[in-house]
Adenine DNA glycosylase (Strix occidentalis caurina), 484 residues
Amino acid sequence: MPGVSGGAAGGRRRSSSSLRGRAKRARRSVEVPGAPAPPPAPHLFSDPAEIEALRGNLLAWYDRCKRDLPWRTLVRGVWVSEIMLQQTQVATVIDYYNRWMQKWPTLQALAQASLEEVNELWAGLGYYSRGKRLQEAARKVVSELAGQMPRTAEDLQKLLPGVGRYTAGAIASISYGQATGVVDGNVIRVLCRLRCIGADSSSPPVIDRLWDMANTLVDRSRPGDFNQALMELGATVCVPKAPLCGECPVKQHCRARRRVSGEGAVPDVEDCGKCVGGCPLCPPATEPWDSSLGVTNFPRKAAKKQPRVVKTATCVLERRGCHGAPEYLIVQRPNSGLLAGLWEFPSLLLAQGLQEEKQQEALADHLQAWMGWPVAAGDLQLIGEVVHIFSHIHQTYVVYSLPLDGDVTLDPASSPSRWVTEEEFHASAVSTAMKKVLGDTWAFPSFPLGSSPQPLSPSTPSSGHRLLRDGTFHVWDHRRAVLR
Ligand code: SF4
């Protein structure tokens, strides 16, 4: 039967024509002159019985199938995990979360931690400002809010650094039972499919509609579970590329699936009078429905902005430590900006299009100014290139090495710096990119003289030098390998 199903729990069915009439009447009754027009009914949840049924089906599935995650109960755990989960997969977060909670078992303990300790634990998780803000917020709760967390989404967002609308809604609903919705990437995907929303899902008008929808749908008696269920559905069933529609607990409410399976009317053409030429929530006319994509027609995003291309020269300075083991010099980045406060090998941002020879000279000058004694460009040994993609930056590190004899005294007035063993390096607050730099410095295989070495991976350069642990170098390229 065409139209909206009341679902298993509600058991009520209505014809599409009666729904359309009802929705039109509802629209007429709330329209205010000058206010933006409400979205067309096919993109809304307007039937209370259907909403009730969807809540029941989703919560029943969640109770049966929810993943066992360590942060489901503690208020502080929800907060820490929600911050860590921004832009990061659950599987990656679990280990970081457990270590974090073990190291700082109370808000007071976190408030007393140094930024250095926070960065050390956060190393490798990316988006480092998240850890910094989390700690700033802990300090604020302890020092300005008498140790009491704000309890509503509005106060959480207003009072705590690093807590945006989504995180505030998640904490307030999960920890304090506030009936407020949440919209994250998983929820966007599920809602866009449930209601055939094909306009750019990152555009403010669509995001606003999705928040309205999440607030309408959230279960009043179990808001935290409902929100987690919706996110869990997006993470495990309604996944981006191959959603498991057959196993989906809300499939009877899903208009994208109905459109694909041919059950009922095709909503965004036949039910939505505004869809032809100008519905704000339908796919744009320039990108019509593509039947080969099925339900994955939804959601849609505007084309991603191309990342900025950046090249940086970085130098692995190495000396023999007191037990003969190699030690490396690392310096601290400024306390603001990209990778704030993290440690790295001495590095220099390169001007666009600089020739290799000039890059080397610029790096030598940079090191010389910083160390206070002459560094010849010819002493810098090229190791190769390491590519690392940040969310908005395509970063290429041109890696050099410079072995040093004996001790080196650094100017204490320059950036904070220290010598570390390989083990200490990995325990320091260093980015994944720098770990790749050190890893690739040592990653090239030993080549028999005159053989033709193969690069280890696509990021491995086709030629360069390899610093050996005995202080000698392999110079290699795709034609030859020479030990000197
Ligand atoms: S039926 Fe398929 S597309 Fe629709 S919500 Fe469920 S998994 Fe997603």
